[in-house]
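JOB MANIFEST
job_type = single_chain_structure
chain_count = 1
residues = 170
[input]
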Amino acid sequence: MQLTREDWVKAGLNKLAEAGIHEVRIEILARTLKISKGSFYHYFRDRKELLDSMMDYWEMYATKRIIHSIEQDNSSLEDLLHISINPDKRIEIGIYVWAKHEPIVASRLVDIEEQRINCIAKLYQKRGLIPSDAIDRARLTYLTYVGWMTRFDANSNFDIEKMFKILINM
C-alpha cells in the first residue's frame, strides 16, 4: 500500500489526539503506519513541515470547509451549532493543548478562532443583531463551545444544546 502525504498528516493528528505533540515523532508515526521512516522524507523535509501541514489540514477540514459549506448552503446558526456538537473533539483538544506550549501554534489558533467567530457573527446578523452585538454574541457562543469541548467528558451536566438555545434566544 502506497502511503500519501495526507496519511502522514492524519497519523500525526491522531497521535496528537492520543498522546500529545511530544509523541508526534517520525519514528513513532512510521511504526504506527507500518512503514519505513524513509517514506516520511518523500513528503516532508522535517518534522516542522509535518507539524505545519497538520495545522493546515486541521484548519481546512475543521474550519474553512465548514464555513464555506455554511455560506454556500445559506445555512442557519442552528445548523452550524448542530454541526459543532460532535463528541469526538480529541484532535481539537490536542491542538488547544499544543497551542499552550507553542507561540506560533497559539497565534495560528487565534486566527482560526477569529474565522469561526466571524462566521458565527454573520449568522447572528442574519437573525437581526447589529454587527457589534453579533460579534459579542459570537464570542460568547464560541467561549461556550470551547468550555463544553474541554469539560463535557468530565461533567455530564454541561448540556451544550441547551446552552446554545439560550444564546440564540437571548
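[summary]
Residues 5-168 form a domain with the Tetracycline Repressor; domain 2 fold (CATH 1.10.357.10).
The CA atoms of residues 20 and 97 lie 8 Å apart.
exit_status = 0
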